[in-house]
Specification:
about 300 residues, Rossmann fold, eight-stranded mixed beta sheet, globular
Length: about 300
């Protein structure tokens, strides 16, 4: 299937009855003391799975800024295409609505999204769906803000995940808050930074939650963990996110940490390049999962 065909599938939100569906999509809500209000979670799983296959892999898929759990319905045809082409093995895919939280524990503890994911969401999914109960086939991935969140969680606790896949992760090309270039924060106001990292911004807290800094300071732990890492960016990203992605890639490369990196030519932050890029990321996830257990 060519890029334009995938883009058309991605952009046209057809009624569910129109699709030749290979999956079941459901919406659940989860109450938590870590975040305000009930969190809506979209959960996608294959329509038919043999009982003999046992627990399925669990894929956490984080939406970007301004998105919600309903975004999983937009990515659903791409996931189904990956299943159809045997790129991705059967898996349960879950996407929580996280507002514009950066999937972060706020500095003032008013919202604790990272803790919610690790302490409430993952245990809930493992208790209520036929998924693996440990890190062996648990994958975390995301796009833009979700790419940043997935990298942060995976780099902080790499033994909790088999792999992380970050598409156009919204990370600044800097190791300290005061050295962030204006080009890397044009879409983030100081007020937004303050809502997340304290007012005034707690420089140390920002740094401790910045994926490149986390990776640099914990490189040997990352290497020893065996975490599988996928990073990709578009070289025409209107938010200039290729800068942070390239910096992170060079950091990992120079440190000798094996990973997969893609700089996608003529790809913007949104648009027709996204569906094939998501499919490529799912291919990485599938290859990683196939390396961890046998699939017929």
């Amino acid at each position: 299937m060519c890029r334009k065909q995938l883009a058309a599938i991605f952009l046209m939100l057809l009624p569910l009855s129109v699709w030749a569906q290979q999956s079941h999509l459901q919406s659940i809500t989860l109450e938590s003391g870590y975040v305000p209000g009930a969190v809506e979670i979209a959960v996608l799983h294959p329509e038919e799975v043999k009982a003999s296959e046992g627990p399925l892999p669990l894929i956490l898929f984080f939406h970007g800024g301004g998105g919600s759990s309903s975004d999983l319905n937009r990515f659903r045809p791409i996931i189904e295409e990956a299943w159809k082409r045997n790129i991705l093995p059967p898996a349960v895919v879950a996407m929580p609505s996280a507002e514009r939280s950066f999937y972060l524990d706020f500095q003032d503890n008013s919202q604790q999204w990272e803790t919610f994911v690790l302490s409430d969401l993952i245990p809930h999914l493992r208790a209520n769906f036929n998924v693996v109960q440990d890190a062996s086939r648990t994958v975390i991935m995301g796009i833009s803000m979700g790419g940043m969140g997935s990298l942060r969680m995976a780099f902080k606790d790499p033994t909790s995940f088999l792999a992380v896949a970050a598409l156009e992760p919204a990370i600044e090309a800097a190791y300290s808050y005061d050295t962030i270039d204006a080009i890397d924060r044009t879409y983030r106001s100081e007020a937004l930074y303050q809502s997340l990292f304290g007012n005034p911004v707690d420089r140390d807290y920002w740094q401790l939650n910045h994926p490149p800094y986390i990776a640099r300071e914990n490189m040997e732990t990352l290497k020893d963990s065996g975490l599988n890492i996928y990073i990709e960016v578009g070289n025409e990203d209107r938010l200039n996110l290729f800068r942070g992605g390239e910096m992170l890639h060079r950091l990992l490369f120079d440190a000798g940490l094996k990973h997969e990196y893609r700089l996608v030519h003529r790809a913007d932050h949104t648009g027709e390049s996204i569906p094939p890029r998501v499919l490529n990321a799912l291919d990485f996830v599938g290859r990683t999962l196939r390396g961890s257990f046998a699939i017929e």
